[in-house]
Amino acid sequence: MSVPSDISNLFKLFGDSADGYQELASGPVQSSQSGWSTPSRIEPAAIVPESAEPESEPVVVQQAEAGCCAVAAPAVPVRGQKDEQVWTSQGLQGLLAGLAQQDSPASPEVLAPQLSSQRPDLQHIRVIAVVSGKGGVGKSTMAANLAVTFAKAGSAVLVLELDPQNALRQHFRAAEPSAWAAAAGLAVSAAQIAEQCLHSSDGVTLLPYGVIDEPRRREFEQSLANDPHWLAQQLADLHLSKGTVVLLDTPPGPSVYLQQALSVANLALVVSLADAASYTALPFIDSLIATYSQEAADFVGSSYLINQVDPSRKLNQDITQIMQGLLGSRLAGMVHADPAIGEALAYNRNVFEYAPNSSACQDIVCCAQTLVERLAANSHGEQTA
Ligand SMILES: Nc1ncnc2c1ncn2[C@@H]1O[C@H](COP(=O)(O)OP(=O)(O)O)[C@@H](O)[C@H]1O
Ligand SMILES: [Mg+2]
What we know:
There is one protein chain. The protein has helices at residues 5-13, 30-35, 89-97, 139-152, 177-182, 214-226, 230-237, 256-264, 276-292, 314-327, 339-346, 351-354, 359-379; strands at 126-131, 157-161, 198-199, 205-207, 245-249, 267-273, 301-309, 331-336. The radius of gyration is 20 Å and the shape is globular. The chain has a domain at 126-379: Rossmann fold (3-Layer(aba) Sandwich). Strands 3-4-2-5-1-6-7-8 form an eight-stranded mixed beta sheet, sandwiched between helices. It is of the alpha/beta class. It is built from 13 helices and eight strands. Helix 1 (5-13) packs parallel to helix 13 (359-379) and helix 4 (139-152) packs across helix 13. The site of magnesium ion has 6 residues, from helix 4. Magnesium ion (MG) binds at residues 139-140, 163, 165, 167, 249.
């Protein structure tokens, strides 16, 4: 079977070969693929490196060659910005009006408050916290499908749901349905979360949040607030194998769950839509990340994923382009709006199982590859943004 080069590259990053890679049988794929194809589809393109000269002329939008993780070249000047206003709706209006390419605004300043004490050593694992300032942007979808991607690449993967919404398991099919039905979830049995682990048909280990009533939820959240190292201790106690990738699904905005997740994360993956509300929420989540990650000495920084990109919508395309320019190499990738994702969820499947040839799958593999590269760069002692 011929293996797409994206998959091969991802396997290589994990130090493995793609020979054993198996795509699951194609399901109802065709309708999904054709569903989002548009004449003006954004062709992925080289992400602009942050190291480029701030003075350089803005790059004119080009129809770049299609390729993994590629996005259209930005038409706005983006680096070296020091203007916090850029992440406001007014700033966005200015940028939209001048996709027109003038003054360079900047990444927002972030808060740097204090957290104290130590947490257990987690150097043997790689932890990605999937976060956002706004809800409904695709965090759970991306956490689940990135987990599947890493598992397909041969990595041990745990995806842990720190969100009372308790929706993560809907993205998976149980390896053993009876065990699946019986599992309570980490909030239900917080002292013994190892016993709550589920195993999906894709080889992903899943720790769902569980269903609890309001008094119990408040009690659980209070206990997390009282013990900032609860998650770190739980992860240490799980004795995960070296190199295990842990994905943490979180609720939007500030919460004890975000605090716990960022205290153990190596990387924060900020999921955002290309709309004004998500755009203006980025400084908010950036400041929360700066606040809660400061105790994690092995924190690499943030990467960003623009989700539900729809090139047929002008505003979506414009904001995507602006964000590409502003984020530079911090952009891990973009995932197109793809009906296959919603359809997969409706059948309790991940999109790799439901529509393995969909564009969403290709986008997610590209994003996974970029994330692995960033984590690998860090573990080799390289300086990252
Ligand atoms: N790339 C995408 N294309 C189409 N629909 C998507 C995509 N990503 C997410 N969705 C849909 O968006 C909705 C919200 O996703 P979800 O992962 O639950 O968001 P969050 O966890 O941030 O609240 C879901 O219905 C999901 O199927
Ligand atoms: Mg969610």
